[in-house]
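step=predict obj=Hydrolase 1, exosortase A system-associated n=281
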Amino acid sequence: MKERVLNFACEGEPLVGILAEPEPHDGTPAGVGVLIIVGGPQYRAGSHRQFTLLARHLAAHGFPTLRFDYRSLGDSGGETRNFEGVDADIAAAIGALLAARPGLRGVVLHGLCDAASAALMYCEAHADARVLGLALQNPWFRSEQGQAQAVLSHYYGKRLRSPDFWLKLLKGGVGLRALRDWRRNRSAARAAPAARRDDFRTRMLRAWRNSPLPVVLQLSGEDLTAREFTLGFDQAQPDWPRRPRLTVHRHAEADHTFSDIATERRMQGELLAWYLQEFRT
């Protein structure tokens, strides 16, 4: 495995990426590359260097992998933006990866949190034949109602079963404050969300429903973002787990970024197995 810097442009602004590439002794190169989209406010290395390590792992097994900073993040130029405004950046990065590795037939978009959401929205907005699959980790699907529901089920569900909580409640103080917070979240959870045609959640659902691409989804058990995603999709599209060409991995003890070393290695192994199954030529 070797690495090199890719400098490319998006709408006149400079973007920077690091391309991890297989070497001859890494085996037969795959016909598909991987584009890691990094959500804000992280840059291309990711939390605890997770994207650096993942890119090197995939490249060592034949899959060229580009991790890059979209405009306004890391070493890339441009004005501040969020995950809802990076379609042009993704398109530019796909072009840069394919130009650097002209033998590839396409790419898989990989994203964690709001970068996973950005990948889905890119597929909803663009019929880009260069995109051959999606690797999504704990996608961002937040709404005020969804956040409240996730807090109630994930956090308060555990607290209400805890004898320590009820002891604090009887003594006043922390327990009473927690009970007030629970009531506030319950009210928010019951509020009807305002849906818009261009809402990012609506766009994600359309992509999930309409895209024919293979998808691998990794969800963390100790993560509110993952909980919000499953609750939101359960309500809006109850049959979402039966989507064709979907592979789901659940990590019960994992946090948002899979920071435990053993969990991170399992996550990498699952992704590599999926890539080999779907795309090895």
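step=describe
The chain has two domains: 2-143+196-279, 145-190.
step=end
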